[in-house]
Write a structure and sequence with these properties.
alpha/beta
Length: about 350
């Protein structure tokens, strides 16, 4: 049994953190589904930036859309929706077989809207309607301004992948926004089974402290954050408030481990996958990490629901001068800025490629 299938047997969903036109056209995504137990997919502006910039796969469609008078953000979302609806169709069998628990793909709203609640909500509704796929999440950042948009999107029946979460506190705030949306649906007599995942970023923690702490602490903080957040996850799932909505037909908002590609070349390329195996969660992996784990990964245990040694590890980092709460805020702010930078670069690629294709006519 491949290690990816072993994860699946342990109760963790394996998703791919990548989408390109060639990925689904070539049959590679189908093979990952059939052979590597991949049951979902996530995307972001950086992924699309690289896919469009580094290939000619999109050129014909860009040229066609230019002829239709489309440009910029409008043109991009049409390209992205084509990729993601094709992927959603490939995962539809999984979605139906799991009664909607798995088989999801994700599309992000413009990160320029990260601090604009009303605009984020409007765009989330628009993209979900345009996609017309039951198994498509709209990614909304779990920033202070994003939280009301998450609640309103869930109340409106839009499935949400909450992104840019970096700490147990960030996760709890996102989970409570989701819960408020579900409770409002129940009070309004609406179906409460609107799906959501909450994406916790892992590797950026270790990248932020490497070289600033004793070597023995390298590549330990991200995993500790994952463990502590997993503890918070199970604490919420067992609370009377959540049990009431489950009893009314709601689904758990699954915890998703994101940013799980290893950044440190001195450590294992499957470090975070092996360490964060956990039931009722998702791990979304870069393509290289997925292949590496299928090739030489192993699952030796699962995360403890009580957080294991996370508090002890936090204590070691505190002694080394790391303020976990302050760093969480910094990482979320930097993450939002990084997404904006990637988005702007993506729009520049759309503009430059559009100009080159028009000049070539």
């Amino acid at each position: 049994m491949k290690a990816t299938a072993n994860l699946r047997e342990r109760g963790q969903s394996v998703w791919l953190d990548n989408i390109t036109r060639n990925l689904w056209r070539s049959g590679s995504l189908r093979r990952y589904i059939d052979e590597l137990s991949v049951t979902g997919l996530t995307s972001n502006p950086t992924i699309f930036d690289h896919a469009i910039k580094n290939s000619t796969d999109y050129d014909a469609d860009i040229r066609k859309k230019l002829e239709e008078g489309k440009s910029g953000e409008e043109l991009f979302f049409e390209l992205a929706l084509e990729d993601l609806t094709q992927a959603a169709d490939l995962f539809l069998r999984t979605y139906e077989a799991t009664c909607g628990v798995d088989g999801w793909v994700s599309l992000e709203v413009s990160p320029l809207l990260a601090h604009d609640t009303r605009a984020t909500l409007a765009k989330a509704k628009e993209l979900y309607t345009r996609a017309n796929r039951r198994n498509l999440y709209i990614k909304i950042p779990g920033t202070r301004e994003g939280l009301p948009a998450i609640e309103e999107a869930i109340f409106a029946g839009v499935p949400v992948n909450v992104t840019l979460l970096f700490s147990p506190e960030h996760y709890v705030a996102a989970a409570e926004a989701y819960l408020r949306g579900i409770e409002r649906r129940i009070a309004a007599g609406l179906r409460p089974d609107v799906s959501s995942v909450a994406s916790l970023f892992i590797s950026r923690w270790d990248s932020a402290v490497i070289g600033k702490v004793p070597e023995a602490l390298n590549n330990r903080l991200g995993i500790a954050i994952g463990k502590c957040t997993y503890k918070a996850y199970w604490t919420l799932m067992g609370s009377s408030r959540w049990q009431r909505v489950f009893n009314a037909g709601a689904r758990p908002q699954r915890l998703l481990f994101a940013s799980t590609g290893t950044k440190d070349p001195k450590t294992s390329d499957v470090l975070y996958i092996k360490a964060l195996a956990a039931p009722l969660t998702v791990n979304t992996m870069p393509e290289g990490t997925l292949k590496a784990f299928a090739d030489h990964g192993e699952v030796s245990g699962i995360l403890p629901a009580d957080g294991g040694d996370c508090e002890a590890v936090f204590g070691e980092f505190a002694k080394a001068g790391v303020d976990i709460n302050a760093l969480a805020t910094k990482l979320q702010d930097e993450g939002a800025a990084s997404f904006v930078k990637s988005w702007n670069e993506l729009m520049e690629v759309i503009v430059s490629k559009s100009a080159a294709l028009q000049n070539a006519i």
